[in-house]
Design goal:
Elements: E1 2-9, E2 12-19, H1 23-44, H2 52-59, E3 65-66, H3 69-84, H4 94-106, H5 112-120, E4 127-130, E5 135-138, H6 151-165, E6 170-174, E7 178-182, E8 187-192, E9 200-206, E10 209-215, E11 220-223, E12 226-229, E13 246-251, H7 254-267, H8 269-277, E14 283-286
Antiparallel strand pairs: 1-2, 2-6, 3-5, 4-5, 6-7, 7-10, 8-9, 10-13, 11-12, 13-14
Magnesium ion binds near residues 259 and 262.
Length: about 290
């Protein structure tokens, strides 16, 4: 028996489906998965004042902030990905994100000195993680993190783990941009054209795999009549205006798919392809 439910979480619609022997078991599994997704959102959302990330953003430039092993591991992973992508993936871009949000409200592109100032507060190399006491410290004043490019993937992996733990063999968890299909048979994931809603341009097989898509087509800002996407190039401080429309990455973990799709988008076609090629079990559709 199958149960499929949808909720508003993490800034969008999240869907969970599970197949189990009884309807009761399927409903229970889906609800437990949603509880886990909600727990992770409460931990990682920079928009929730009580989240760990908000606490880090308030305090870590002043003093080392102790965090749970779970959050510490996620921060460690984030820094590892920064190194693997030569800084294209960088959770410390929040000052730049805020700057560009503010620019949108004022309808004026930030001045170069404001970008330089925000860049000074950015940089994964300025995060100090202390392995002994599980603390995080920012070496520069007013640094802030945003887990928007990794958090949903992590949450999806956690929910899938819960479903697996309940003996579920066939399930799907989707945040829209990141999907995990738990299945012993192949299902097909259709890649939508980033500019033509509903038009499927290709399909990718998913079998116990995740897919994550990064694109600028749905989330962007208009400043002075020009479109700016939501991905930031940490090297320049400007929104990525590269040569890509979208990147979809299929791999065994939703978190890695999430990180790789964002990173490849920031890196652009050539360097993005090289990054994906380095992963044995990842495939990408780059448009
Ligand atoms: P995604 O939709 O997974 O590609 O993630 C995009 C989100 O990640 C943005 O909306 C920002 O919140 C955040 N972000 C933007 N630029 C970067 C970057 N260079 N590295 C890490 N996260 C970023
Ligand atoms: Mg991502």
């Amino acid at each position: 028996m199958k149960c499929a439910r949808m909720r508003y979480l993490m800034g969008g619609l999240v869907e969970v489906e599970a197949d189990a022997d009884t309807r009761h078991a399927a409903v229970n599994a889906v609800e437990t998965a949603f509880e886990e997704l909600k727990r992770v959102e409460k931990l990682l959302s920079k928009f929730m004042p009580d989240s760990v990330v908000s606490r880090i953003n308030r305090l870590a430039s002043e003093e080392p902030v102790a965090v749970s092993p779970e959050v510490f591991n996620l921060l460690r992973e984030s820094l590892r990905f920064s190194e693997l992508t030569e800084g294209a993936f960088d959770i410390t871009v929040n000052p730049l994100i805020e700057l560009w949000n503010d620019a949108c409200l004022k309808d004026r592109v930030p001045r170069p000195h404001a970008i330089r100032e925000a860049l000074f507060r950015t940089g994964h190399q300025h995060i100090r993680l202390d392995e002994a006491d599980h603390t995080v410290f920012f070496e520069r004043p007013d640094m802030e993190i945003d887990l928007g490019a990794i958090g949903k993937g992590y949450a999806v992996d956690r929910a899938v783990k819960i479903l697996r733990g309940r003996g579920i063999r066939k399930a799907m968890v989707s945040t829209g941009s990141t999907i995990f299909c738990l299945d012993d048979t192949v299902s097909w994931f259709g890649v939508e054209h980033p500019l033509e809603r509903g038009e499927i341009i290709t399909s990718m097989p998913l079998r116990d795999n995740a897919v994550s898509t990064s694109a600028n087509s749905e989330r962007y800002q208009i400043i002075g009549g020009r479109r700016y996407g939501h991905m930031i190039d940490p090297a320049s401080g400007y929104p990525v205006a590269g040569d890509l429309l979208s990147v979809s990455v299929v791999t065994t973990s939703a978190m890695i798919a999430d990180v790789l799709s964002t990173s490849a988008f920031v890196l652009g076609r050539q360097a993005g392809r090289r990054l994906i090629a380095r992963w044995d079990c990842a495939e990408a559709f780059i448009l």
